[in-house]
Amino acid sequence: MPIGIITDVCATFVGSVLGILIGKKLPDYLKTALNNILGMAAITMGVVLIMRQHALSAVVLSAILGCITGEVLKLETVINKGVSKVTAKLMKGQQTDENYLIQVSAVVVLFCFGGTGWYGALNEGITGDSGILITKSILDLVTATIFGSILGKIVPALCVPQALVYAILFLVSGLVKTLITPEMISDFSAVGGIITLCAGLRLSGIKKDIKVLNLLPGLIIAFFISALWTAVIG
């Protein structure tokens, strides 16, 4: 049983619903302050994940190739269109501004495509250890509460793709665990750290023009580049 995944998704859902319920009671200045501190927290998490790298050159190359792939596929545009449609239904047709979509896309990365979450799901599938995701669920409970109060009904809806992504990673890692090396996991985690750091920069308003979702292909590319780099360079 993927106990860690279930715990993390449930924590995200409970936190987001709680945030929606208390959202109207929170003053705007407090929401802004909390949004900024969460952005800085994401930056800190990103730095910690990057430090886990095995081969920095392989990590940077994976991030570059992932960025190029995402830009060519216009991944962020496609995902944002989907988010806009879902948001319009949840918000009863209410129009959403660009800043709202920037915040939502950053939350999508943090909850569904963050390096810690992917690493935790892969680790649970490979080793059966759910500790990483259970620890992450505590942070996600607080984070989802704050974002639920700021962004509304779209946040609990993100639990669906979060559960699907984590479940796929859990199942796939169990099937290919004999092929995944510690070096690959380390470099994968570092690429996830770069993406998480960029999401934090965007969320806190330091660098709003970063198309974070276009960086996601780098997470998959990292496995292949890391394996090739380790085989050739060591």
Write the layout of secondary structure elements.
Layout: H1 3-22, H2 28-50, H3 56-73, H4 75-90, H5 98-112, H6 115-127, H7 131-151, H8 154-157, H9 159-176, H10 182-203, H11 217-232
Mean pLDDT: 84
Helix content: over 70%
Reported for the largest beta sheet, the result is: none
Question: What Rg, in angstroms, do the CA atoms define?
Answer: 17 Å
Strand proportion, as a percent range, falls in under 5%
Q: Got a strand count? A: 0
Instruction: Tell me the span between the first and last alpha carbons.
Output: 36 Å
- Judged by helices, strands and strand pairing, the structural class is mainly alpha
List the total number of helices. 11
Topology order in helix (H) and strand (E) letters: HHHHHHHHHHH
- Low-confidence runs: none
Principal-axis shape? globular
Written description of the protein model:
The chain has 234 residues and is mainly alpha-helical. The chain has eleven helices and no strands. The protein has helices at residues 3-22, 28-50, 56-73, 75-90, 98-112, 115-127, 131-151, 154-157, 159-176, 182-203, 217-232. α6 runs antiparallel to α7 (131-151). The longest helix is centred in the first third of the chain and has 23 residues, at 28-50. The radius of gyration is 17 Å and the shape is globular. The relative contact order is 0.24. The mean pLDDT is 84.
